[in-house]
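ARCHIVE RECORD
Type: protein–small molecule complex
Small molecule: magnesium ion
Source of inputs: curated submission
Record status: active
Notes field left blank by submitter.
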Amino acid sequence: MKTRGCYIWAMPPIIALFDIDGTLLRAGGAGRRAVELALGDVLDDLDGPVSLESVEFAGRTDPWIVRTALTQYGVTAEDGLIREVLRRYVAHLPRELEIATAFEVLPGVLSLLAELSARDDVILGLGTGNTEGAAYAKLARGELDSFFSFGGFGSDHSDRAELLRAGLERGLERIGARAERADVVVIGDTPYDVAAAQAIGAHCVAVSTGGYDGPALEAAGATLVVSDLCATAVRSAFERSAAG
Ligand SMILES: [Mg+2]
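STRUCTURE (tokenized, with ligand):
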């Protein structure tokens, strides 16, 4: 039903914002290698290949990772340089994804996305530290890209709560709803996802298929913690009594 340009929902819609790495898929190190190659392109006077083994990737945003890496190499992380490294990273990524033998779509992901996308009261979005280009490259490698048409990305903001907010705004625009008329469920794999979800007043389903175990995700304050997205319990986060 539509009146004066706004949809009137019988029930508030649920906006789902999915993290990518460790939640929907594992990129098999392709992201890290592509960032290393991008840094190698812009850094002079290196003794050997760039190695980012000591930089934390899980739950971090792409601009944060690049800023940290540049600093580690003693380079002033100016915004223009970060943008250039990110641009080169997205250019290197498809090839690295193609040759990543350890790439995998995580258990239960395909059936959960298919199930949720069939519902007319749930809209699927992304809430990821990946830049938009990197996000869709990774999803395409796993044939998951067609499930998503909007999100909040590392290219929107280096702060995870802010990029989730951007994703939520886009979801609300999409359905013509006001913030107070939607329920938001964030699905992620790290305490950073949980904290960012809390910052925007969203429920958070945390899945321990990334680098963090169940107790760590519970301690962070996740609404629900599951061992993988096959879990029946995940569906309960999209029931009205839980999300309402
Ligand atoms: Mg993640």
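CURATOR ANNOTATION: The chain has two domains: 2-27+104-243, 30-98.
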